[in-house]
């Protein structure tokens, strides 16, 4: 939850910040405040078994907020209670996702910036349902002519929310262009800055603008140690291969061998060749083609393919790898390092 002594947060990234990735982040920043990837209130309350994150237990995950989305105030309250009972330290309500299936067809996410009455009802429902803090993550507004985030922040405060995270883009912008955070005005609730915050200089910049904290998002992609660098708890690892291999093992433990191999084969198809390990290898080796062929040409059979992938990582991304940071923007377009549930759910 919001704490003046813990002003750095990791952002919720759909399909990225799943349980395996959060464990990697925690290695580099043990005390950072994290937010899960968004969870549908309908899926959670109905206990859909095909969505594994519905059953996550957060008791041992440190200071973590669980993010939910939906447009039904009653169901959102029920979902909040489930997540509280699962060990979440606070509940975060998504009021900023610009994806059409969430923001338009479902009437949730960023759409709530257009329906402040419903937004307030949802916040109140969640606050009443739990004993832990409730926060809101939103954007500047629906589009350039409707930048009314301050009104939504006041509604959040009046409805009992503990803080608001503000992404410096409108819904219409999606993730294009540059985030432009305004100077923080006087508001009755703490505001956490989010959007294009990539390093400690960016954190200091938003602090000068008056924000009460900083939330790091896509800068973590391909370089999860960046959160440790910002928090002052870690440096870039000398051997990236060890990080990749640990992430791979966590993914297999969490999703299972069959799910891993199906997703692995999907991501390596065509020209993408960019599973979590494949992307890392591409950025640390000159002969990525040989590595890709080595991964693709393994025999059928889940355990064989997993073993081969591990061996490729160990051999090619070991001590001889140069350890350079990866290009987050390229990674964003491929949705790679997180390698998470957005692909698993398609299986």
Describe the structure.
- With 347 residues, this protein is of the alpha/beta class.
- It has helices at residues 19-28, 41-46, 73-85, 100-103, 116-129, 149-158, 200-208, 226-231, 240-255, 257-267, 276-282, 288-296, 302-316, 328-334, 341-344; strands at 8-10, 33-35, 39-40, 64-69, 90-95, 134-139, 163-167, 191-194, 213-216.
- It has an eight-stranded parallel barrel with strand order 1-2-4-5-6-7-8-9, surrounded by four helices.
- Helix 3 (73-85) packs parallel to helix 5 (116-129).
- The longest helix is centred in the C-terminal third of the chain and has 16 residues, at 240-255.
The N- to C-terminal Cα distance equals: 34 Å
Spans where pLDDT lies below 50 across 5 or more residues: 1-5, 264-301, 318-347
Arrangement of strands in the largest sheet: 1-2-4-5-6-7-8-9
Number of helices: 15
- State the helicity in percent bands: 40-55%
Global structural class: alpha/beta
The radius of gyration computed from the alpha-carbon positions, rounded to a whole number of angstroms, is 20 Å
Question: What is the β-strand count?
Answer: 9
Reported for the largest beta sheet, the result is:
8 strands, parallel, barrel
Question: SSE order, as H and E?
Answer: EHEEHEHEHHEHEEHEHHHHHHHH
Indicate the mean pLDDT.
78
Into which percentage range does the β-strand content fall?
Answer: 5-15%
Principal-axis shape equals globular
């Amino acid at each position: 939850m919001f704490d003046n002594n813990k002003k750095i947060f990791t952002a919720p990234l759909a399909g990225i910040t799943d349980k395996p990735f959060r464990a990697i982040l925690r290695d580099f920043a043990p005390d950072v405040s994290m937010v899960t990837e968004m969870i549908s209130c309908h899926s959670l309350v109905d206990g859909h078994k095909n969505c594994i994150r519905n059953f996550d237990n957060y008791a041992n995950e440190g200071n973590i907020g669980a993010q939910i989305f939906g447009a039904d105030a009653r169901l959102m309250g029920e979902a909040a209670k489930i997540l509280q009972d699962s060990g979440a330290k606070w509940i975060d309500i998504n009021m900023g996702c610009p994806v059409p299936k969430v923001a338009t067809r479902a009437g949730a996410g960023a759409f709530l910036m257009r329906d402040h009455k419903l937004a307030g009802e949802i916040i109140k429902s969640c606050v009443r349902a739990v004993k832990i803090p409730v926060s809101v993550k939103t954007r500047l507004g629906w589009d350039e002519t409707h930048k009314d985030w301050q009104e939504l922040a006041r509604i959040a405060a009046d409805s009992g929310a503990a803080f608001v995270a503000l992404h410096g883009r409108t819904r219409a912008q999606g993730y294009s262009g540059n985030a432009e955070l305004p100077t923080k005005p006087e508001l009755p609730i703490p505001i956490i800055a989010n959007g294009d915050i990539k390093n400690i200089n960016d954190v200091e910049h938003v602090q000068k603008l008056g924000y009460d904290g900083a939330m790091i998002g896509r800068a973590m992609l391909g370089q999860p140690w960046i959160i440790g660098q910002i928090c002052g708890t870690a440096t870039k690892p000398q051997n990236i291969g060890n990080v990749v291999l640990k992430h791979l093992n966590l993914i297999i433990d969490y999703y299972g061998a069959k799910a891993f191999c199906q997703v692995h084969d999907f991501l390596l198809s065509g020209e993408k060749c960019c599973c979590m390990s494949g992307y890392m290898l591409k950025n640390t080796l000159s002969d990525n083609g040989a590595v890709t062929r080595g991964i693709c040409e393994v025999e059928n059979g889940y355990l064989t393919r997993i073993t081969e992938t591990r061996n490729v990582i160990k051999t090619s991304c070991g001590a001889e790898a140069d350890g350079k940071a990866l290009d987050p923007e390229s990674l964003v377009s491929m949705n790679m390092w997180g390698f998470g549930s957005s692909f698993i759910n398609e299986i």
